[in-house]
């Protein structure tokens, strides 16, 4: 009986000790509770995503076409002699401006002058004979036939003088228009053949600009339209020009229109042969636009994230033209909405967002 009580007493004490150990082991400490709460708070704070955003606005988005073209002189000619001869005089400096009619090159004309003097002497004699024959005819000392022959001889002599005078003029090469001469490759004393290249003359006060556009613009282009010209050689300058002509023939190979514009170059900043970029404005209008970086691709098209009541919402959009890193939005957005431009990859539908200022460099570039 006594041993049974001992066994019961030991069992009760063991169970009590085991229960106390389990209670102490499983009771959460106060420090652990604080750490858990802090972690939960941090997880909640991590759900706020910092993004950059801009307001959707209306901007100028004109209907325009871009192209590349080549600049040409308003007038350009390579001067060549009509006859062979030895250069006796050069009347210009390389790269200098010359006026219309200025003497540029003179060939040795001793032979032509002598021939012309002889022809004029013969012409004077023939004129004297014709006058004398006319006087004798009035006195009935010669026949009508003699007067006709004297008149014909005078006409032949006059024609001979004009022919040799023309040949003498061919020894002088003069500027057909005002412009700038190039760099010569001949010198005084050189013997040049008929048709040899002497010097090029360029009128660059006005320049022609030839460029091509797809034939879909045929109904939109017209003579007199203004266009903007840019050159890689002068990246900070913009030049204005006007369409001067539209070729009636469409290129069958490229289905392109050939257009020619003219631009004022009295400052002499541009040169023939330079490459130029062309922006032709066909109609002025305004449109809703967003920066290019706001667009996100998807299987169904493009979309953007907008901030509404502090949360991100994806909106499908359809786009139109582009200009200066701005994309026209045809549908999906309204002016005044805030569209996310940086940080979209971290967003999901309904995420809580915080808009942070855009870096100054990015604002200036936009």
Describe the structure in brief.
This protein is an alpha+beta fold. The chain is built from five helices and 21 strands. The strands form three sheets. Strands 1, 2, 15, 16, 17, 18, 19, 20 and 21 form a nine-stranded mixed sheet that branches. It has a six-stranded antiparallel β-barrel with strand order 3-10-13-12-11-14.
Structure characteristics:
Elongation Factor Tu (Ef-tu), domain 3; 4 domains; conserved putative lor/sdh protein from methanococcus maripaludis s2 fold; nine-stranded mixed sheet; rod-shaped; 366 residues; alpha+beta; 5 helices
Descriptive overview:
The chain is of the alpha+beta class and 366 residues long. It folds into four domains: 91 residues, conserved putative lor/sdh protein from methanococcus maripaludis s2 fold, CATH 2.40.420.20; 88 residues, Efflux pump adaptor protein, beta barrel domain (Elongation Factor Tu (Ef-tu), domain 3), CATH 2.40.30; 46 residues, no CATH class; 62 residues, Orthogonal Bundle (Helix Hairpins). Helix content is 28%, strand content 40%. It is built from five helices and 21 strands. The strands form three sheets. Strands 1, 2, 15, 16, 17, 18, 19, 20 and 21 form a nine-stranded mixed β-sheet that branches. Strands 3-10-13-12-11-14 form a six-stranded antiparallel beta barrel. α3 packs antiparallel against α4. It is rod-shaped, with a radius of gyration of 47 Å. The N and C termini lie far apart (98 Å).
